[in-house]
Amino acid sequence: MSVKKGVIPAAGIGERLRPFTLAFPKELLPVGDKAVIEHAVEAMVQAGVKDIVIVVGWRKHAILDYLGSGSRLGVDITYVVQDGPRGLAKAIEQAKIAVDEPFLVILGDNYLEPKSFAREIVEYHEKEKSDCTIGVCRVKDPSKFGIVEVEGNRVVKAVEKPETSRSDLGIAGIYVFEPIIFEMIEKSKPGKKGEYQLTDAIELMISEGKQVIFKELLGTHIDVGTFEALRGLQRKIG
Q1: Domain count, the chain
Q2: What pLDDT, in 10s, does the model give residues 1-44?
Q3: Residue 222 belongs to what domain range?
Q4: Cis? peptide before 102, omega within 30° of 0
């Protein structure tokens, strides 16, 4: 089945970007002439995905005011609410009420360039008929990222911010999932601070013999989660 639905998690509190995120969510921080979340929407449109679920939480009305119905961007947006910081996995699980088919995920506070990578990962997922396809990029400090270990094109291990790692393939904030991911999230257990990690749900997929593969992003991936990252990105794109 072709991928026509998208999910953008945008419910985080953004503690590392305070005091700005006391007033509005980090997904509305400007990158160039638009909010970072708008770049995620544009990437989905390039991938042929125009039916988008946005998971909101902290200062949610600001995102609703900014994106509205999505008509300005040529998409149809459905909003679902995540009450409280329960982790990325639970944010994605909230979309279950509106998604029952393969879907593309781009984190609302991540900037990807070129945006064509979204289309490429969708096409790769469809070609390989996988259960989960993860976009990755090479990272200098694996302890700051979700990391995957691979054999061939398959992911054999996924771990969140490991202290040591044999791999430098960091998860780049973009995925394609079959609906089986919702079952895996439900089976997973909370980690630090009571939050549910998406890497744990992916690990369950691997342990149950599901096909989890990866595609490397040859471009730019920046998690706009710190002032340092935001300033660096602004310098990069002018």
Answers
A1: 1
A2: 689 999 999 987 656 655 666 556 888 888 878 899 999 999 99
A3: 5-237
A4: no
Q: 20 — alpha (psi -120 to 50), left (phi > 0) or beta?
A: alpha
Angle between helices 116-128 and 36-46 (to 10 degrees): 50
Q: Which residues contact 109 (CB under 8 A, 6 or more apart)?
A: 10, 12, 14, 26, 27, 29, 36, 37, 223, 224, 225
DSSP string spanning 112-131? EESTHHHHHHHHHHHHHT-S
pLDDT at 24 (0 to 100):
64
Residue written as token pair 């909010």: 35
Domain harbouring 59, CATH code: 3.90.550.10
Give Cβ neighbours of residue 38 (< 8 Å, ≥ 6 apart): 66, 67, 73
User: Does residue 162 have a cis bond before it (omega within 30 degrees)?
Assistant: no
Pairing outcome for strands 212-216 and 132-138: parallel
Give the pLDDT confidence of 137-187 residue by residue, as tens digits. Answer: 999 889 888 999 999 999 999 999 998 888 999 999 999 999 999 999 999
57, 49 Cβ separation under 8 angstroms: no
